[in-house]
Amino acid sequence: MKNQVQLITYVDRLSDEGLKSLQTLFDGELKGVFGGVHLLPFFYPTDGIDAGFDPIDHTQVDSRIGSWKDIQSLSKVTNIMGDIIVNHISAQSSQFLDYLKHGEKSAYSDLFLTVDKVFTKDVSEKELSKIYRPRPGLPFIDILLSDGSKKRLWTTFSSNQIDINVLSEVGKDYLNSILHQFYESGIKMIRLDAAGYAIKKAGTTCFMIPETFDFIEWFREKASAYGMEVLVEIHSYYKKQIEIAKQVDWVYDFALPPLVLHAIFNHTSEYLKNWLEISPRNAITVLDTHDGIGVIDVGGSEGKSGLLPEEDIDALVEQIHENSKGQSRQATGEAASNLDLYQVNCTYFDALAQNENYYLLARAIQFFVPGVPQVYYTGLLAEPNDMELLAKTKVGRDINRHYFSNGELDNAIKRPVVQKLLKLIKFRNSHPAFNGVFSLKSTSQKSLIINWKNGEEWTKFNVDFNNLSYTISFSHKGKEEDLVL
Fold this sequence. Notes:
Blueprint: E1 6-9, H1 11-14, H2 18-27, E2 36-39, E3 43-44, E4 57-61, H3 68-75, E5 79-85, E6 88-90, H4 94-102, H5 125-129, E7 140-144, E8 150-154, E9 161-163, H6 169-184, E10 189-193, H7 210-225, E11 229-232, H8 238-245, E12 250-253, H9 256-266, H10 270-278, E13 283-285, E14 293-294, H11 310-323, H12 327-331, E15 343-344, H13 348-351, H14 356-368, E16 372-376, H15 377-380, H16 387-393, H17 406-414, H18 416-430, E17 437-440, E18 447-454, E19 457-464, E20 469-476, E21 479-482
Parallel strand pairs: 1-2, 1-16, 2-5, 5-10, 10-11, 11-12, 12-13, 13-16
Antiparallel strand pairs: 3-4, 6-9, 7-8, 14-15, 17-18, 18-19, 19-20, 20-21
Helix pairs in contact: 2-3, 9-10, 9-11, 9-14, 14-18
């Protein structure tokens, strides 16, 4: 992966004409802006119950947005990251329908994870209570096969997302087939979705257990054989995240979004700097993604302190609700049939009350901390909450998943705040100091000073949290200059 800002986008939401139109965008208005693009699920269908994260056919591009040939063509313009959803497959998939029809005689019977494959005897309520799940209730559904037999299946996320047995031979063949298709189509990097839930074992939490690391390592080796790197997506306690980072190619810095908001809301760099002292350096940094703004990543665990005090997390969530004029409250938790209670659904721009100066400050912090930055498409365009889409779908995350028409996109790119952000992105991509050494200067809680140095090249980022002002200075042809946005 290039050490340059990456774009995260849905193919059908940034452009209403699919992959060909997206390539036109990379050849035009966004030419040279990004070092790569993470294409969120483009498989058939892109409009399932979980916006493509419930694939019916993981090896088929949804024909409404293009083809593998289009993916391959785009890969020649920019590096592409694609999602491999390792935990589950759609209940409408041909494999699952075959299993429903033929039961244990199906060639896919070992692909699906039944509860009795994990718990070989009657399981107690106490043991079930250990299972980690980000949503209420047990992760099981009961199904009736065509021969009249009943099966209890694992469904970590929803009844339409049937968990697969990744340790079975048919499960491994299934994942290998996706990897091969990605390789053939020019995809350079894999985002391993929901990997933390992929391995289930009796007597454990069934989340990020030692066997999970073994599976991730197996997958990473398979991807590496194709010349692809792997990004592991895990929301968890920060110390566990640090341990995970030691064993994988890349991890997300999911702690950064709430920490940046906290710093701006409370005019203090204390907790943000504490994190930057220990944060993984092989991180993909984000402020926003297709999911909500996570708070579990800065919270405590089993009596251990988190990156923020619990009362500060509560106040942070309330401040987001206030800044968005209550819109985020309508999109979060049970209010919008979205039970990811550890996430707040809101665009980052609205989380900052649409204050353009604070928004650019937040992005500058993201671009200067260690890691490779990713910018979500609504974040690139400083987009407000889409309350119309939320009202239509009643899916909380859709508040931050706006569909842009081409004309609307053209106008959005021309906005001054977006043009300033593009200038900041190009600076992060081009200045050689960012390929050097990061250092964090010891300062008071009211300031933040970050330096990058690479030989004679350097850049300095100085934030005054008293008034939320900042300066960016850098070397240019042996002289000092300031970046003016």
